[in-house]
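Project outcomes to date are best conveyed with an example. Our students and postdoctoral researchers have been running inverse folding experiments weekly, and each run begins with a structure described purely in tokens. The record below, which covers 459 residues, was selected by the lab manager from last quarter's runs and is presented without edits.
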């Protein structure tokens, strides 16, 4: 008996657990996240529900938002008029098996029948076939990967636990707003009758969704269908990169997430991130800045970091070095005034002497008042050049050819600007320290004679 159980564990691990982990973590043969600067995707599982799905369709219509519904075949069979309305109002209808049962517990032939039966139901109602598939709970088995030519497996990049009513509309709103970013594929549920869900949980989801859609409009973001998002990815220059370059980019972007978390970087414009920053102590050699101030080791500086994902997308979508530089200048023009306002309202940031950064892409910072200086020769300069050279060969419009063409000028540079200069340019002032209540009391308790004309206070 023990041997049988052990063999069942081995089989289930290779049949579903490992394929599931590979698809979730590495996105192997599945679609999880898009690209772009103004679009995200709303996806809804487990419906249609006769009570909540019509309310959801009303809400999406009010905000002119398009969504993707991964429907359970048996539910679609019972509610054909809702499926017909989804299709008529321009939403995409995908497959979520005929019954809400995990592929982990079904044979490949059974899964195939589940998909085909649901597709036949959708076709009988709308007259169109569906080629988009989300397995229940996102669990794929080993043979699901072989269906790539028949269906596109779609997972998600943001999940909120909205199937539980105890989460509540307020907490759900917070979680959804934290993930309201371009390219996100959001997983929500318009039905609460499946195993583990609460029947009235969609009521809270609808409240939170309306709040998020309202905020999305304020940010200039819109929800699009999954098929439209996939087309944008397929037409992107990113897809033209070799596997090796995509691997480098993937590792680079993953490292940025880790770096931002470890060093608690803050983002100037979270809705459209380009510049991140942190307050730290300067560790280099003394530098005389343009305003006559001396930057010494140990002085506070605001260290700037360009968002790697934005930098990569700017690079692959630029046709030349000049276009890349122009696009980066425009983004800086947008973020620097916001940073100046933040410094003017923060005592800690206002104590910094300079803005500081290191970059190999250093065309144009003088326009904003930055000094561009060579890094002192040493391990840091050499390792930084090696690291940035690899990345530049990937993101630069000319690729590796650029490195060979003018390698002598492609060296990392240090960029500095006095904080006082930035504030002056943006018509901002350093915040004044408020006098503490205790100091005011001491001031009031001083002997009156010390303030009288001609009097001498003897201590």
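After processing, the design step wrote out the following sequence:
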């Amino acid at each position: 008996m023990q041997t049988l159980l052990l063999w069942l564990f081995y089989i289930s691990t290779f049949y579903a657990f490992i394929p599931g982990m590979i698809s979730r973590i590495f996105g192997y043969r599945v679609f999880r996240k898009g690209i772009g600067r103004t679009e995200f995707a709303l996806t809804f599982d487990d419906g249609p529900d006769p009570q909540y799905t019509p309310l959801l369709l009303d809400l999406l219509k009010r905000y002119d938002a398009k969504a993707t519904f991964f429907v359970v075949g048996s539910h679609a069979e019972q509610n054909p008029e809702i499926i017909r309305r989804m299709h008529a109002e321009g939403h995409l209808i995908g497959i979520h098996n005929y019954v809400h049962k995990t592929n982990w517990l079904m044979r490949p032939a059974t899964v195939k029948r589940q998909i085909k039966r649901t597709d036949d139901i959708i076709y009988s109602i709308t007259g169109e076939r569906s080629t988009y598939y989300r397995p229940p709970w996102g669990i794929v088995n080993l043979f699901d990967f072989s269906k790539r030519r028949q269906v596109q497996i779609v997972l998600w990049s943001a999940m909120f636990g909205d199937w539980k009513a105890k989460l509540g509309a307020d907490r759900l709103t917070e979680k959804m707003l934290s993930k309201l970013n371009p390219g996100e594929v959001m997983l929500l549920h318009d039905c609460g009758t499946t195993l583990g869900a609460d029947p009235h949980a969609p009521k809270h989801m609808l409240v939170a969704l309306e709040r998020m859609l309202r905020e999305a409009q304020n940010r200039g973001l819109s929800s699009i269908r999954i098929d439209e998002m996939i087309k944008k990815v397929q037409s992107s220059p990113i897809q033209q990169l070799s596997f090796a370059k995509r691997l480098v980019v993937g590792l680079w972007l993953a490292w940025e997430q880790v770096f931002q978390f470890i060093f608690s970087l803050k983002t100037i414009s979270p809705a459209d991130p380009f510049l991140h920053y942190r307050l730290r102590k300067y560790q280099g050699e003394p530098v005389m800045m343009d305003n006559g101030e001396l930057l010494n080791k140990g002085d506070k500086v605001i260290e700037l970091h360009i968002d790697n994902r934005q930098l990569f997308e700017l690079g692959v979508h630029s046709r030349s070095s000049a276009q890349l530089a122009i696009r980066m200048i425009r983004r800086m023009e947008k973020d620097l005034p916001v940073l100046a306002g933040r410094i003017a309202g923060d005592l800690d940031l206002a104590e910094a002497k300079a803005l500081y950064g290191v970059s190999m892409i250093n065309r144009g910072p003088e326009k904003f008042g930055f000094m561009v200086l060579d890094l002192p020769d040493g391990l840091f300069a050499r390792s930084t050049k090696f690291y940035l050279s690899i990345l530049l060969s990937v993101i630069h419009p000319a690729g590796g050819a650029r490195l060979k063409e003018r390698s002598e000028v492609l060296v990392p540079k240090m960029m500095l600007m006095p904080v006082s200069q930035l504030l002056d340019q943006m018509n901002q002032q350093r915040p004044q320290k408020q006098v503490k209540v205790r100091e005011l009391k001491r001031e009031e308790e001083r002997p009156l004679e010390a303030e009288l004309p001609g009097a001498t206070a003897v201590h």
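The first helix runs from residue 2 to 26. Residues 4-15, 402-409, 448-459 have pLDDT under 50 and may be disordered. The training component of this project remains on track.
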